[in-house]
Specification:
The chain has about 300 residues and is of the alpha/beta class. The chain contains 9 helices and 14 strands. It folds into 2 domains: about 140 residues, NAD(P)-binding Rossmann-like Domain (Rossmann fold, 3-Layer(aba) Sandwich), CATH 3.40.50; about 160 residues, L-2-Hydroxyisocaproate Dehydrogenase, Chain A, domain 2, CATH 3.90.110. Strands 3-2-1-4-5-6 form a 6-stranded parallel β-sheet, sandwiched between helices. α5 crosses α8. The longest helix has 18 residues. The two termini are about 35 Å apart. The structure holds adenosine-5-diphosphoribose. The site of adenosine-5-diphosphoribose (APR) has 27 residues, from α1 and α3.
């Protein structure tokens, strides 16, 4: 397998390290800045004898080196800074996505695209439009990240292991994301039986604010360990071709009453990308929140 990562900054380079250490695929790191992807690739290769991986790692500024990739992950773009919302990046990162996709669609026309650049749902929609790829091959990485963050928050709150938390977060990668309490269990018990309404609201707000909290703490740039880990979880599901349900940003065409927009929905991933959008039974208030969340992505897309 060949995985190309466009943008060799914090998210891209950390993802390259995860891919290299897993030995899942050969890896190409590409960036507009000369020297940076080459330097990071060489650094990763220097680590290989110690860690024990053997796959090919290439750093480049030339899209020809990404030719024939099975998966292309796009992290190119600006991260937000303190005080910025993800939406503030829409224009700046939109033009970067257009430039990147123009190249990828000629060099890797059969690849699965995973978009990480923010504002995630709008950028994934733009990549879908610009690439002309089938909707099954354009996927945004967000719900998987929001879900892992929520699992961490819940495990800490209830003092259980991460594996004992079952949950999923849908909707926009932003303030209107929808943590599905109806599908949240702590050691097998519904969370709604374990905490009062106020507490549940507090926990939901905590996950919504997770990204901004890290932006505030770092002072410069945004999160990258968890985003790269969530993307790697998606890559593993694609390669394993298993039926694991993950939340990803994808094109809705009537599912959950949403149409013509990218938003976080539960899907099964496989070798060809999205196998299906899974229909979960959710509460009426969750469905309403999911539709409103999709509307906020629509609004953002209209500014592109
Ligand atoms: N082509 C290729 N690479 C580009 C381009 C482009 N047109 N424009 C910018 N880049 C590169 C930058 O040179 C930089 O190395 O993208 C990289 C981005 O890296 P960082 O600034 O470290 O940002 P990072 O934290 O990795 O976040 C990247 O992911 O999570 C999102 O909000 C985040 O949109 C941001 C993206």
């Amino acid at each position: 397998m060949k995985i190309s990562i466009i943008g060799s900054g914090n998210v891209g380079a950390t993802l390259a390290k995860r891919v290299a250490e897993s030995e899942l695929a050969d890896c190409v790191l590409l960036d507009v800045v000369k020297g940076v992807p080459q330097g990071k690739a060489l650094d990763l290769l220097h680590a290989a004898p110690s860690v024990g991986y053997q796959k090919k790692i290439t750093g480049t500024n030339d899209y020809n080196d990404t030719k024939g990739s099975d998966i292309v992950v796009v992290t190119a773009g600006f991260p937000r800074q303190p005080g910025m919302s993800r939406g503030d990046l829409v224009k700046k990162n939109g033009s970067i996505i257009k430039a990147v996709i123009k190249n990828i669609k000629t060099t890797s026309p059969n690849a699965i695209l995973i978009i990480i650049t923010n504002p995630l749902d709008a950028m994934a929609y733009l990549a879908y439009k610009e690439s002309g790829f089938d909707k099954s091959r354009v996927i945004g990485m967000a719900g998987t990240l929001d879900t892992t963050r929520f699992k961490y928050i819940l495990a800490s709150e209830f003092g259980v292991k991460y594996k004992d938390v079952e949950t999923i977060v849908l909707g926009q990668h932003g303030p209107s994301m929808v943590p599905l309490l109806s599908h949240t269990r702590i050691s097998g018990k519904p969370i709604t039986e374990m905490a009062k309404k106020d507490k549940l609201e507090e926990l939901k707000n905590k996950v919504r604010e997770s990204g901004a909290k890290i932006v505030g703490l770092l002072g410069k740039g945004s999160a990258y360990y968890a985003p790269s880990a969530a993307c790697f979880e998606m890559i593993k599901a694609i390669v394993a071709n298993n039926d694991k349900i993950l939340s990803v940003s994808c094109l809705a065409q009537g599912e959950y009453g949403i149409s013509g927009v990218f938003t976080g929905l539960p899907v099964r991933l496989g070798r060809k990308g999205i196998k299906e959008i899974v229909k979960l039974n959710i509460e009426a208030d969750e469905l309403k929140a999911l539709k409103e969340s999709a509307d906020s992505v629509k609004e953002m897309i209209s500014t592109l």
